[in-house]
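In practice, a research group might receive sequence data for several interacting partners and want a quick structural hypothesis before committing to experiments. The following worked case mirrors that situation: the sequences arrive first, and a predicted assembly follows.
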Amino acid sequence: MIRDRTWGSRLTDTVILVILIVITLTCILPIWYTFSLSLSSNSAAAAGQVWLWPVGFNFNAYMQILKDTQFFGSFWISIQRVMLGAALNFIVVLLMAYPLSRSSQQFKARGVLMWILIFCMLFNGGLIPLYLTVKGLGLLNSIWALVLVGGAQTLVFNVILTVNFFRNLPKELDEAALVDGAGPWYSLFNIYLPLAVPVLATVTLFSIVYHWNEFLYGLIFMTREQYYPLQTYIQQLVVSVDPATMSEDQYRRLSELSNRTLDAAKIFIAMLPIMVVYPFLQRYFIHGITLGSVKE
Amino acid sequence: MKHTFKAAWIFSISAVLVLSACSGSEPTAESTAKETQTQNTEPADPYGRYEEPMTINIGMQVDPTDKDLPSGDTPLDNQYTRQIEEALNIKVEHAFTASAANMRQKISLAIASNDLPDALVVNAVELRQMVAAGQLADLTQVYERYASPEIKDIIEKTDGAALKSVTFDGKMYAIPGVQADADGIHIMWIRQDWLDKLGLEPPRTMEELENVARAFVEQDPDGNGISDTIGISGPQSGDGKMYANFLESKNNLFGFDAIFSAYGAYPGYWLDDGNGNPVYGSTLPETKEALSGLRDLYAKGLIDPEMAVREASDEPIINGKSGMFFAPWWMGYGPLTNAVKNNPKANWQAYALPLDADEAFRPHTATPSTEFVVVRKDYEHPEIPMKMLNNLFKNEMENTFDPSKGGPGFYPLRVVFAPSDEIEFTNKAIKEVLAGTKTKEDYAGDRSYKLLSSDLENITKIKQEPYDDWSIDTWTPDADWGAWTRAYSIMVGGNPLVETEMDRVNSMIYEQTPLMESRWVNLKKMEDEMFLKIVMGVAPIESFDQFVEDWKRQGGEQITREVAEALQQ
Amino acid sequence: MRIKGFDKHYYLMLLPGYLWLIVFSIVPMFGIVIAFQYFNPGKGVFHSDWAGLEHFRYMFVLKDTRQVFFNTLLIAVLKIIAHLIIPLIFALMLNELRQIVLKRWIQTIVYLPHFLSWVILGGIMLDLFSYNGPVNQLGALLGFSPTLFFAKAELFPWLVVGSDVWKEFGFNTIIYLAALTGINPALYEASGMDGASRWRSLWHITLPGIRTTAVLLTVLSLGNVLNAGFDQIFNLYNPLVYSTGDIIDTWVYRTGLLNLQYELATAVGVLKSLIGFILISISYYLAYRLINYRIF
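A structural hypothesis for the assembly, expressed as tokens:
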């Protein structure tokens, strides 16, 4: 791209650069701050002395977490949930997206089936019937409650994304497959699957992120703390405010009681898996999202 | 709140003394295993051990931040559960556990799915819902036969308020916990340095109160030569209230709660009309009388002329222009920190004053019973939870449990049968430590008072001798404002609570009834506006009678009937 | 073209997915009947007395629900507007940046917050804005007295919108960036030759180039008008800010699950789903009409 290199243009470039860097910093600094806080001494944290570097550097918070069996139990539950949830999501999304990406001429029921999906995405009977259903299936306290209930809620979105991706693939693919006499299973696994890597990586990333981040179902379907996934465990420790808090003073007293360094350390550890997985999947999801959602 | 839940574990020394004096007959240790479930009404042994091992499934609140249990112990296996198993032969199991913030949700799901644990601790709304759904066991017999004399004494001492809260259609469907709460007591905060300067005593009666307020207004107590001082602060515009009410029974700042009660008036509360029927305090003649008294004070310029107009009532207090206001104990967290920062000599002290015609301080209180132990309808041994409560109370009195091995929150089905006393306990502990009669280490075991050790550590930083004088010049807040805020609240604000004999007045109900949900907001608005107009002299005092009529006609009468029904259920 | 024998294979592929949705999404919808009952848990859903539209009528009388609908609309609409504009500006600035490596880095960092849960970010936010947290410390340097930000009802909606923009703006730029890369570079070159200033080419080439995308995103966001973000608000709010911060979803959660008004909560939930369904249908129609785009 050729542009004029005038003084004014360079000034604009510089200003833009500075703004971008400042904005980028605001994205990373809170996370960095949390990390510093987790390595600071309790008293420095309570007195609000921590900025960008740990004050009274120590690993106490992390040592404490190492001894916290509940934390690791919840961590492990979350890992299991993510693996099961993402695998199931991958398979079901692939299987559903292919037939639903056929045109209405190829597959008559498509329109109705799509609207059923939308209906499922929008309507729900609320948490109580959901609870009764899960309880009726005997899935309370089971990891399958988390995998299946949560998975069902995100399934529709992922299917739609993948359907759109498939529909954007060249029509010739299909015709070629038909000429070769390939059946639907063959064309799904041998023609579509290899091409669908970006979108499948994207929905897998979404599924991983969703299952890792979701906390409410853990709160509802698990009757004991030991079955909580990590986010639920952290939610009730760090953020939940008793609905009985009626005054600003109570709110302040409540926050004075919290252990900021320990909370920060827990938060930081809970972020880690996402930050580790994310760079690997990043290059796929940009592609996947844009192809899946926008079609010019 | 996590910490009050935990902090309420021990009984104030006086309560223990009174109660242990009450328990005349020591129970004998005979077995009661065979006499369960019969229709007999003879008292049974509250502490009797079962011959056969019993199991109870409960829903339990577990504080996830609480790491007090020794390693190896769990919420299901700790000193409390072991003691219960040993003393009563009862094995406790968990149907579910949840933190304070999530407990309601778990109970709600249990009710909705009609699948309750054998027993659990619930709040008033849940109790009503469970009774309406027919999910609970009738505990009338159980209470009669099994409740220990001490517990019966505490429950019955609430003038029946606690019992009424669990009685529906003449049957008792829960065991109510009982506690009072410091945030619900509104006391008088006054500029002691102004009193001293003008040669006055803290006002004990309404008459003296008027004199003091007049002196504050007329005799230039701040000595700036301008007549710019306020006698009594009033509520601010917007959220300001002249008095707390049965729905918001705590933490009313700059209201006139103590003045109303000096007239024997309790507007905003549901009182007993003398025959056990509920009557709304705002509609009673005492309230009219108190309003007329306030109207008089206001007309004389002794109450802040800008009350209810002011954006922030704390402003004149902070600026050293106000001499008196009414509020709960925690005013260090309120305007006093800034007031003292502004003027280090502003000597705000607190008193349980003014007194009523009988020379008594009779504050309205927050609800006595917020927690209830309920039992599932078809549970085979409905007396087990009662026995567990008896056992709890007895052992807390005898100090059997070591709180350092896990706070009392780990006792299954625990409800508090005593004043919630964090403020009072800390107040006394600080005094003991300052006096040298105890050391910080003596309180090392009281770990459920999460801030106690830091309170004891910090106190000498900010409080100087003499230790029996709490005037502002004996404090050094500059050393640590954070610590001072808390300590000043606890000591100066807590002293009246610790040192005053109080007759507390309860509301008969502390929850909304169904009709209130749609009507109450408007009724309350009408009440607030009318009373404000009366006090400020915009409406004649006679309009009070008109208000009472309007109130009744616009749903008040119906609501009163509903309240009576709710109480009789 | 339609191959007859393929349909049964298509149905076979769809079977697991729809089974999943039937059990965990459609079956729990029976709970909607609670909204039309005097639900008595002792009698259960099938034997409770019918209430007709009583709860819906009651809902419109309640001041509470009106406030909650208003809060939801306000927060959601502010979010929608912010999410349309801020990512656009950011994408345009990023597009001007010529240092490719730096651009990559910025993209990677600003996408990250999207993948962190509100449990985590709520924990960080509450700490950042706590009484002696960094924001108040910074304020103190500038001479402001400390404020309990998350206890102030008048500030809460702005904090919610602000933090949501902070979390999502990076991710939302993806689609704009994709649209920007779709613009033919020859157009810029031509305008550079003509000596057009950057502002002119921004106005005449860039903005028209992404107009379709912007319209599409606007239309699609219509479906979110009643979604103000349960996870976020649930993890940030407290009773002091209910007056301005309580939204339909949090209100339904509390009313149904904490205050035991099952019927009322369900009724409000049903109404919300209904409106959502209508809005989605409208946006489906508009997207098709305006820019010939099919959402699925």
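Before designing any experiment, note the following. The radius of gyration of chain B is 25 Å. The interface with chain C takes residues 104-105, 108-109, 111-114, 125-126, 129, 132-135, 517-518, 521 of chain B (CB under 8 Å).
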